[in-house]
Design goal:
The structure is a single chain. The protein is mostly beta strands. Helix content is 9%, strand content 54%. The radius of gyration is 13 Å and the shape is globular. The N and C termini lie far apart (32 Å). The relative contact order is 0.22.
């Protein structure tokens, strides 16, 4: 478990995500990668990792703007001790 200030880490390595409508924003680690799927084809995965307390009001279907691109939250997964959460995104 991290005892360090998570804000400092996210500010150094993250990008700003804005909830559509502009009523809140927070830092995320944004990752776009290609992965091989079970059916033998490759797919693109979009994941944003954020502090869990920053995204407590997000739900499946919430819309985020990251680097001037709109994404829909299609998955929400807490990581390990729950201080961080991964958001699966769809363009």
């Amino acid at each position: 478990m991290f005892s360090e200030n998570l804000d400092a880490f996210l500010e150094d390595f993250g990008v700003i995500a804005v909830v559509n409508g502009g009523n809140s924003s927070f830092f995320v680690l944004f990752d776009e990668f290609h992965s091989r799927m079970d059916i033998g084809v490759e797919g693109r995965s979009l994941i944003a990792t954020a502090k869990s307390e920053d995204i407590a009001n997000l739900n499946h279907g919430s819309m985020l703007i990251i680097a001037d691109q709109m994404y829909e939250v299609v998955g929400i997964r807490p990581i390990d001790d729950g201080r961080f959460t991964e958001l699966d995104l769809k363009e």
